[in-house]
Write a structure and sequence with these properties.
- Keywords: Zinc.
- GO terms for molecular function: hydrolase activity, acting on carbon-nitrogen (but not peptide) bonds, in linear amides.
- This is PIG-L family deacetylase.
- With 238 residues, the chain is an alpha/beta fold.
- The protein has one domain: LmbE-like (Rossmann fold, 3-Layer(aba) Sandwich).
- Helix content is 39%, strand content 15%.
- It is built from six helices and seven strands.
- It has a seven-stranded mixed β-sheet with strand order 3-2-1-4-5-7-6.
- Helix 1 runs antiparallel to helix 5 and helix 2 runs antiparallel to helix 5.
- The longest helix has 20 residues.
Length: 238
């Protein structure tokens, strides 16, 4: 039996929690393996609560953010690592792309999740998309024999941004996270540096559940997350 593998890549250490923690928890609950990679800790632009502490330092903020993200990932059954490239601005060059591509070759994920290509309010999120998109393409090697190590093509989806209507985000997949919402809630609790976002994303899960109920007629769906496919999925029949 093949164990399905998921790779989630965020620009900052908390991005996966708000946008995909439920999908990760559903994946691992079903026996899948999930890895979370963040390109930065969001130590400069997304750790405002921590900077209220007198004498705070960048290195201490990174340490706290790493601990928070690790705890959040564990809450949904995933591993966590950070490339620590810095944020605001996130600058990710060829070395970062090559590093992620090598990780993809090793992990060979069946599904990859990251940010949408466009976000007019966050300069780092589109950078993460470009890194993931390029690394994924390099990893698959155009699906032909290549002179370097490759991995099978993966499904490729983007998770919902904070303001989807301004980011060109159109949901094509809803994941019912009702049975794992407690795990997502624990993951959100772990991100104390951005605790103010928990209410927003709890409400968002309710909104998306409403949409999922309308699509399916399944009244049992109480919480859901939305995703958009970047490449088509292939099925044997409809």
């Amino acid at each position: 039996m093949t164990v399905r593998r998921m790779l989630v890549v965020g620009a900052h250490s908390a991005d996966f929690v708000w946008r995909a923690a439920g999908a990760i928890a559903k994946h691992t609950l079903a026996g899948g393996e999930a890895r979370v990679v963040t390109l930065s800790y969001g130590e400069r632009g997304e750790s405002g609560e921590l900077w209220k502490e007198p004498g705070q330092t960048v290195e201490n903020v990174k340490r706290i953010r790493h601990a928070e993200a690790t705890e959040a990932a564990q809450a949904v059954g995933a591993s966590y690592e950070c490339f620590d490239l810095g944020d605001y601005p996130l600058r990710a060059g060829d070395e970062a792309i090559d590093r992620l591509a090598e990780l993809m070759r090793d992990h060979a994920p069946h599904v990859v999740l990251t940010h949408p290509e466009k976000d007019p309010f966050n300069p780092d999120h589109p950078v993460a998309y470009q890194v993931v998109s390029q690394a994924r393409l390099l990893t698959s090697g155009a699906v032909v024999e290549a002179g370097f190590r490759t991995a099978p093509p993966s499904e490729f989806l983007v998770f919902e941004p904070h303001q989807p209507d301004l980011c060109g985000f159109v949901p094509t997949v809803f994941v019912d996270i009702t049975e794992v919402f407690e795990a997502k809630s624990k993951a959100m609790d772990a991100m104390s540096a951005q605790s103010y976002l928990k209410q927003y994303y709890t409400e968002r899960a309710g909104h998306r559940a409403n949409h999922a109920r309308k699509v399916t007629g399944d009244k049992a769906i109480r919480h859901a997350e939305a995703f958009q496919r970047i490449v088509p999925n292939v099925v044997g029949s409809l």
